[in-house]
Each structure stands twice: as C-alpha cells, then as structure tokens.
TrEMBL record:
Domain Gla: start-end pairs: 52-98
Keywords of this entry: Chondrogenesis, Developmental protein, Differentiation, Disulfide bond, Gamma-carboxyglutamic acid, Osteogenesis, Phosphoprotein, Secreted, Signal
One BP annotation, GO: cell differentiation
GO CC term, one of those recorded: extracellular matrix
Keyword Ribosomal protein part of the UniProt annotation: no
Name of the protein in question: Matrix Gla protein
PANTHER family linked to this entry: MATRIX GLA PROTEIN (PTHR10109:SF0)
PROSITE patterns hit by this protein: GLA_1, GLA_2
InterPro entries reported in the protein's UniProt record: BGLAP-like_C (IPR058704), GLA-like_dom_SF (IPR035972), GLA_domain (IPR000294), MGP (IPR027118)
Signal peptide: 1-16
Cellular compartment(s): Secreted
Amino acid sequence: MRTLVILTLLAVLVMAATCYESHESMESHEYYNPFINRRRANDFIQADTRLEAISRERIRERNKGPQERQREICEDYYPCELYAFRHGYPAAYRHYFGRRRTK
C-alpha cells in the first residue's frame, strides 16, 4: 500500500512538472490570436512592383541585342555550337551564318 501511495505522489509530481502552463507562454501575442488575416499576411508583397518587374522582363526579352540573337541562333545549330566552344560565338556565327547569299 505504501508503494502505491509513493507511485501516486510521484505520478502527480511528474504530471505537475510536465503540464504546468507558465506565465511566459501566456504573454505571447499568438496565444490569444494565433492566426492573422489575409491582408496582414500579404502586406510584405507589393503586387504592383511584382507585375511591373514581370513586364520589364518581357520588354527585355523582346529587345535583344544583335550579339545575343546571333549567339542563340548559333546555339540552336549543333555544329555551330561545337565550333563556338573552340573559337567563340562571334567567329562561329560568321563561319556558319555570315556568308548568306540569296539568289
């Protein structure tokens, strides 16, 4: 019987030690309201700047320089790309596409 009382007291002490709610956890703001509304959650993202950046990127894609266009043309043609690895893209473009003659 004495062992049962000691085990019961020990169990109560363990339960009190592990289940005690400290005052520090009650102080946090999330304890009272753990969720924030959608407007506050998305405050750090400005939609206008994101859309503006996308439109600027699209404009930049449309207005490519002539060297970039030549390099892309050369990258699409495998022998030109191999030649470019050894001699550079400008030389490879001139070698494969520079002397175009139309009749």
